[in-house]
Amino acid sequence: MLGTIRAFWNDQRGVAMILVAIMLPVLIGFSLLAIDMSRVNGLHNDLQKGVDAMALAAAAELDGNVDAITRANRAVTTLVANSTLFSTSGDHPIVLADVTVTYLTGIPASDDITLTAAGVDSNAQNWASTDPKVVRFAEVTVNASGATDGAGAFATIFPASLVGSTEKMDIRPQAVAGFTNALCQFTPMFICNPFTNSATSLSDLQAAVAGTKKPMIWLKEQTGGNSAQYGPGNYGFLSSPEGDKNTAAITEMFAVTNPPACYDQSGVTTRPGNIPPVDKGINTRFDIYDNGGPYKTDPAINPPAPNVRKGMDVQNAGKNNCSYTAPSTGQVKNFMAVPRDNCFATTCSNAGSLGDGNWN
Fold first, then answer.
1. Are 82 and 93 in contact (CB under 8 A)?
2. Which residue in 272, 70, 268 sits closest to 181, CA to CA?
3. What is the C-alpha to C-alpha distance for residues 95 and 81, in angstroms, rounded to an integer?
4. Pick from 214, 316, 42, 248: which is nearest to 237 by CA?
């Protein structure tokens, strides 16, 4: 009897079956987990691409006009079409009802600061707004499932309830996109709208400068000292995009062929106060270079405009260092300074600072 027991104890036939029986649930469980991870990754990828496209479509309409949000919502509804394959809803198209679209005036400075679907960050700052004139970003977040499964509803194949978890979850990606227009390579000067006092100032200005017959603009210097306000038709200077307000930087921006700077539609920074003349930079464009001074420009670095037209207006022909011979009667029109519109001598109808396009 003792020998039989000893023989049974030493018999190793069929031991693999015991090990397989013990490990089989573990192997199957890991296989199901691998499949679930692949499915949830695919669902998240589909949803993320969907909300990315929606956010970009909405943001492209946020131009500050009064109908910006209306157009943004229409873009989300009609311009993009995406669907998911691994949610509990099967082949599910992502529509406006599946997401929350929130429009923001700004975003947190760091990506580590999270945003809720309502546009409130983790520091309790509310970035959301319904004012189409101030919103600059579109935030799109997949909604949580309600009474029915939403676009992000996911059910695992692995029986997670056996380990105290749940087989259902919501995948809720989020996307934030912004849009702005930029103006690049321009002269750092601003002109106040001559039609500011008109109820339809922008349309009046557009009509005045439209067409092939371009009127001259009479730039009016702001007078009255530092306490005076800029009025319709007044001009002034802008700071560089880096905030540089010194005269040398502004003169250089006038002199260079393509100023390496851009301003976005959120606004510009003016250069207030009294600044020394920047005529050295402006003259460079007309092939006139100063011989000295602190703001001298270099033709090798700052070439003139490719098509220069300039006249001559003699200020003092009697100076010893300036030899001047007056042009004959037939030559006067070839050497005269560029004139203003004829109406500036009397009364211009276009807000007093825009010509009518007729000049001699």
1. yes
2. 268
3. 8
4. 248
Q: Do residues 151 and 82 touch, judged by C-beta distance below 8 A?
A: no
pLDDT at 56: 93
Contacts of 129 (CB under 8 A, 6+ apart): 103, 104, 105, 135
Angstrom distance (rounded) from CA 103 to CA 178 = 10
End-to-end CA distance of the chain: 133
Residues 6+ positions from 189 with CB-CB distance below 8 Å: 235, 236, 237, 238
What is the DSSP pairing of strand 174-178 with strand 234-237? unpaired
Q: What phi and psi values does residue 76 have, to the nearest 5 degrees?
A: -60, -35
Tokens 């510009």, located at residue: 268
User: Rounded to an integer, what distance in angstroms lies between the CA atom of residue 248 and that of residue 241?
Assistant: 14
Reported as a single tens digit per residue, the pLDDT across 203-228 is 777 777 776 666 666 666 666 555 66
SS3 state at 82: strand
Per-residue pLDDT tens over the stretch 327-344: 677 776 667 677 777 777
